[in-house]
Amino acid sequence: MGGSYVKQKVQGIFQDPARQKRALERLNIDNADQLVETLGTLKGAAMKLGQGMANVASGLDLPEEVTTRLAKLHKDAEPIAFRIIKEDIEAQLERPLDEAFASFEPRPIGTASLGQAHAASLPDGRQVVVKVLHRGIDGTVRSDLAALKAVLLTGRFLRRNRGEVDAIFDEIRARLEEELDYLQEAANIHEFSQLLANTPGVRIPKVHPGWSTERVLTMDRLPGMDLEQFLAQSTPQARQRAGTTLANLLFTQIFRLRTLHADPHPGNYLFDADGTVGLLDFGCVKRFDEFWIADYARSGLAAVEGRRADCLQACRDLGALHGASPEAEELLWQMVTTLLHPMTQGRYTVGAHGDTVLERIAPIGHKLVRYPQVRAPRDLVYLHRSLGGTYVLLRRLVVRGDWGAMLQEHGSYAIACAEGRT
């Protein structure tokens, strides 16, 4: 792909501007197709990387043809042959497929980075989804991570402290290893069902233990549309309700429950016509220490209120700022205040024409990585993944809210908990 862009740059010297633009657009689309095909076949950590790229792409001003192709990685990757799926289910459940299920759809409803999902029905008629872990994916994930880490450390892509990189990869490995255990995911679903039992506008599937093992997970099939269908068919009021629910859900999980559904790509949500949100895929869950989350809340509230010194001190307490460098401190302050810009504007519409947070944050990030004084604590990895993924979803939905008031309410609760005041 890199070579194709170099070639086009050379050819562009001899092309007029209009032809250059058409050639580059065509090349972008061709390379997006190649990327989706390759990462969709590789599965594992490689495909997860592609899904992350797709999330970012959907929030930027890229051609629709490119973002549409990348979005296929959320559910339309190259499927595993049904013959293999059938063998694996029968081996795990220790009975023939037609004995375990009244019906089973050979064509998958989705193929993800670590597993594949099929629609089925239980002998009593209940409609379910059966997730099957990809065969051999355990070793693939470990080798993918080792290869990516080696590239980052030995190349010039990331000039960071070795200890910081080790901590980040340890965090990624821990979460991915949990995702490879469907009994752990079943426990996560049960936990979230209890934690969010009284949360309006949210649906969570029920697990069927008799049809679940470490490598097969069977749960209720939730009703609803995927994001693209919902955007095409829903009313502005329904989109507003769905977006407000997603934002409140994120803040509740971070600051109140300290337990986070940390895989917020579009393929993990279903939407009812009224804006009710169904949550899918609970393999990746991140839990936080109450004192660390309190410092995170302090940094955000201080930034929103313009208290620069307090914000930077909270960043030090989090482990995100080390040493003394006025340049690093200023860039970090710019980063935090840019990220939290929507929370300083009263009622703010995420996804409106003037919402340029993602575009403004990129050049600051490019500068910030040059300063070793600013580091990414491992607890930030999945928290900010969820924050960014939810923000991209809200941009697609175009949602208006008083995000600063929401942060004040939930963040203050987290601080009060850590201080023993509630």
What does this structure look like?
With 422 residues, this protein is α+β, with helices and mostly antiparallel strands. The chain has three domains: 2-74, no CATH class; 78-111 and 114-221, no CATH class; 223-422, no CATH class. 58% of the residues lie in helices and 10% in strands. The chain has helices at residues 2-12, 17-42, 44-58, 64-71, 82-93, 97-100, 137-154, 162-179, 182-195, 227-233, 236-257, 290-304, 308-318, 326-339, 357-368, 378-397, 403-418, and strands at residues 103-104, 110-111, 115-121, 127-133, 202-203, 216-220, 259-261, 269-271, 277-279, 285-287, 348-350, 399-401. The model has no long low-confidence stretch (mean pLDDT 89).
Quick overview:
This protein has 422 residues and is of the alpha+beta class.
Task: Considering the chains and any ligands shown, give keywords for the structure.
3 domains; 17 helices; 10% strand; alpha+beta; 5-stranded antiparallel β-sheet; 58% helix
Structural class: alpha+beta
Q: N-to-C SSE series?
A: HHHHHHEEEEHHHEEHHEEEEHHHEHHEH
**What's the rounded overall pLDDT mean?**
89
Biggest sheet record: 5 strands, antiparallel
What general form does the structure show?
globular
- How large is the share of residues in beta strands? 5-15%
- Rg, nearest Å: 22 Å
What is the end-to-end distance?
A: 55 Å
| Sequence stretches where pLDDT stays below 50 over 5 or more residues | none
